[in-house]
Each structure stands twice: as C-alpha cells, then as structure tokens.
Amino acid sequence: MNKEFTCIVCPRGCHLIIDDQLNVTGNSCPRGALYAKSEVTHPTRMITSSVRVKNREDTLVSVKTSIPVPKELIFTIIKEMDKISVEAPTNIGDVIIKNVLNTGADIVITKNIK
Amino acid sequence: MTDVDLLIIGGGSAGMAAAIEAFNHGVKNILIVEKDKQLGGILNQCIHNGFGLTEFKEELTGPEYLSRFENQVETLGIKYLLNTLVLDVSKEKVVTLSNKSGITLLKARAIIFAVGCYERNAGAIQLPGDRPSGIITAGTAQKYLNIHGYLAGKKIVILGSGDIGLIMARRMTLEGAKVLCVSEIMPYSNGLNRNIAQCLNDYNIPLYLSHTVSKVIGKSRVEKVILSKVDENRNIIPNTEMEFDCDTLILSVGLVPYNSLLENMGCLMSSTKGPCVNENMMTNIPGVFACGNCLHVHDVVDFVTDEGRNAGIGASKFLLETFNETNSLKISPKNGISYVIPQYLDKNCNEKVTFKFRVRQPIKNAYVVIKSGDKEILKIFKPVLIPSEMVMIKVDAEKLNDLTEDILITLEGKDE
C-alpha cells in the first residue's frame, strides 16, 4: 500500500508517495527520498530547545540535537535538556550532552554568548 | 553632529546583510543602529532549524544563521550601536537616536531601513469577546519561552496557521503545554506544508480550516475560546460553535511592515504597508532605502538576506557612483497578483532584476506574464501558485533595456 506525506526536509514541502518496495515519487531532491524511507522505517526528528545559563541573568541559550533522533524519544530528550544548565561564555557547537540516551546524537549549543 | 556615510536602522538579517554588502562595495563609514541588546533581530528567538538552505546549503537554527553574519560584521569592523532607538529621521537625513547616554543627532548621507515588521494583535483583528490576560501574539510567546524561559500558558488555542503559530504549537507542546487546536479563517493554511506536518500532525494537533474565534470568554484570565465556522466570505455561520476550555489564546494572524518613520518622512507607501522602491531598493526619497520585512513580509530569511544585499549595493552606488536620477517606469500588479517588488524600475536599468510577488489566492496552471505596454518581456508557466509562497522571477538586463512604457505583471490562464 502506498503511503503519502509531506516532506519536512526543507521549506519546499514536497508531497511524497512511497510504495511497499520503498520506491519514492514526488520528491524534488535525493534528500526527500531518504526522508520518505526513514519515515516509514524509523521516523526521526531534529529537536531544538533552549537551556538555562547559570551565570547570566534572564538568559537562555539555544541548543539542538546534532543529528535527527527517533521520534518516540522526543519528549524524553526534552526532559534531559531541561535538567541541564550551562555557564557562559558559550560557543556554537559546544557539546553539552554526549550521545544522549544512546541515540548517537549529541546536544550542542547553537548560540554564542560572550 | 557626527556624520556617517551609511546609517542602517535595524541589526537583524536584512540590516547585517546590507551593511556587509555595502562595506564590500567600498562604503566604509557605516553605522548599524539596533534597539535590542544584541544583533540578529527576530532570529535570536527562532531557535528552530530550517534556516540557510538557500544561503549556505545547510539547515541551521536561527541563532546559528545570524552568527555567521554577526561574525562578518565583527571581522570587517563595521560599527554598531546596541540598545539604541531611532526616534526620528528628517528628510535631510538627520537622525535622532536615543539610548542610555541620552539623545544624539547624527547626519547620514544614505539610510537603509531594515526595521522588520510587527505582529497583528487582538485589536488589529477586532477579536470578539472579553479582554482578559492570556491573549498573546505568537512572536511574544516565542520570546517569553525561548529567550526568557517562561511558558505563556498551559491549555492553548492558536488562531491563525501562519508559520510562527505552527512553530509555537510544537514548541509549547514540547515544553509541557496542551495545544488544543489551531484555527484558520481561510480554507487553506498560511503556513508551510512541512510545518503542518512536523508541528501539528506529529503531535496530533487538529487544524480547523474556515474557522475563527467568535468569542473569547474570561474574567481575569482566558477561560474559554469559542470557534465558529465561516462561509466563503469569512462571515461566521451561526450554530457552528465549538467550545474550548483553555487559559491562553495565541494569535498568529499576520505581520505588518513597521514603517512609521518612513511615513513621517513623506515616503511613498505601497499596498504591502512598506515603501515603494525601485530595483536598487531605493524609495522615492533619494538616498533612503528599505529592505527585509519592513519592505514586505518574507517567507524565509535567506530571501531577506538577499534583499538586504541588494539594498547594500544600491546604497553603495548612491554613495560612490554618479547616480543618474532618471524617470522611472511604474511596475503594477494585476489580475490575481497582490503586490510586486520593486514598484519602480529605472529606465536606464542595466542589471538583472528580481521581481518578487504574491498571488491573492491559490491558483493552478497559470502563466506569469510581465509586459511593458504591449511588449511581452517574459512569460513563464507555473503549475502551482499559493499566497503563502513568495514568487521570485529573475529578468535579464537585456530584456529590460529600452523599455518606454509602464510595466504590468499579471496572471494568464493556460490556454490564453
């Protein structure tokens, strides 16, 4: 049976159709085909959030997962992020949690705070 | 009074791109004025990813995207003032600045407005019902959550399916709020399809199309929001009410370019609520330019950056070259096109020009036609055009040479 969904790889939002043999149509780029395959086998998402900065008043620093993580772990990973607070200065790319919940993804800082 | 060659009002994506490009084109005495405590504008609170696909061929978060431009501003040594508000700009380009050290006057030879836009609020849409606390625009809720760490509510109804509303539906869900639904008055969503997929469908948040808020109920805090179905003229259909017990109503009902300073200067304004500009992003006041969301609201930041660069190049031409002021041709939208940027084209234009426009409603299988009088400049086929996606069409310089009559941009059916 064919499955249909909207591609979330880029803002273009292609309408993807994938069949049982994992043939993808409707994609405008190879990344769309990869997304469709992963969506029917093991759906993943990037997570972005922000965490507290201890030594700055009224300041949060934004973070993301270094790679997309399994969709079913989103809320658990958000909880892990909420436990963390960091110290400024921060640099884009700083790893604050390595290999979160054994997903292979790191939680990295996405904002420079002096 | 200090003198600068180029003053840029707004240190967000448009302003930084304009500054960097003007600098690289030979303008060295530049000052960026930013009201916030940091450069980057709205991208500081857009912590989600999806930025930079056109610009950097990779997917960045808002803060990562802005840092690349912030770094260039620092490296080039372009001066900027933070925590500084522009109170007034005179026609003679005398600018009144206000910050901690008081009021200062400054004379600029050219000015680029890159001040962005603001969100339509409850008053702007004449929201029916009570006015308790708990009615908040999506961008404000985003700033509270992502910059300050406060969740604006726990049980939420969102009005408007623009991208910020969709992004906030997901973001607040992740931080523990329950988003009951998103209501959209139009029969189609105004957000990107991918955001419907990854922000609503992923979290089973219903989207009610052709629905709007018919009443807000609450004494000190929002207690209930009533949604009703609307007909094709967007009038509420009686007896279609749905009641939602909630504590917060988030409004994502459109952005309006922020242009009170330009209006006060007597600048010619367009239907986008931004100024009219020519292909150099210059307004009808010589040496005054505009770019980014204060000119017209963009879908993605990459296009804002590009437009900022155009304004930066335009300003550098104005400052460094002999800028022949000639008569301009007017560019008008027609037949299903709601607006076009630029609104004017210099008759002596000898460069490629990007026409940017939006359609009024979704349309399939149409030709976009650009004409000067009876002369067809360009005709291209578009399978799908929707209002939420800005269309950009590049027209080569040779096609724009020797035009004598005003320009029309219009849609034609497939068989015409």
Could you explain the architecture of this structure?
The complex is a heterodimer of chains A (about 110) and B (about 425). With about 110 residues, chain A is of the alpha+beta class. Helix content of chain A is about 20%, strand content about 30%. Chain A contains 2 helices and 10 strands. In chain A, the strands form 3 sheets. Chain A has a 5-stranded mixed sheet. In chain A, strands 1-2-3 form a 3-stranded antiparallel sheet. The model of chain A has no long low-confidence stretch (mean pLDDT about 90). Chain B has about 425 residues and is of the alpha/beta class. Chain B has 8 helices and 27 strands. In chain B, the strands form 7 sheets. In chain B, strands 1, 2, 5, 6, 7, 8 and 19 form a 7-stranded mixed sheet that branches. A 5-stranded parallel sheet of chain B has the order 10-17-11-12-13. In chain B, helix 1 packs parallel to helix 2. At the A-B interface, strand 5, strand 6 and helix 2 of A face strand 4, helix 2, helix 3 and helix 5 of B.
Number of strands of chain B: 27
Distance between the termini of chain B: 60 Å
Q: CATH superfamily assignment of the largest domain in chain A?
A: CPE0013-like
Identify the CATH architecture of the largest domain in chain B.
3-Layer(bba) Sandwich
According to CATH, the fold-level topology of the largest domain in chain B is: FAD/NAD(P)-binding domain
* Unreliable segments of 5+ consecutive residues of chain B: none
- Any idea of the CATH class of the largest domain in chain B? Alpha Beta
- How many domains make up the coordinates of chain A? 2
- Kindly report the CATH topology of the largest domain in chain A: CPE0013-like fold
For the record, the count of structural domains of chain B works out to 3
Main sheet strand line-up of chain A: 8-5-6-10-9
Q: Could you give the count of β-strands of chain A?
A: 10
- Report the helical percentage of chain A: 10-25%
CATH H-tier superfamily of the largest domain in chain B: FAD/NAD(P)-binding domain
What structural class results from the helix and strand content of chain B? alpha/beta
**Assigned CATH class of the largest domain in chain A:** Alpha Beta
- The class by helix and strand makeup of chain A works out as alpha+beta
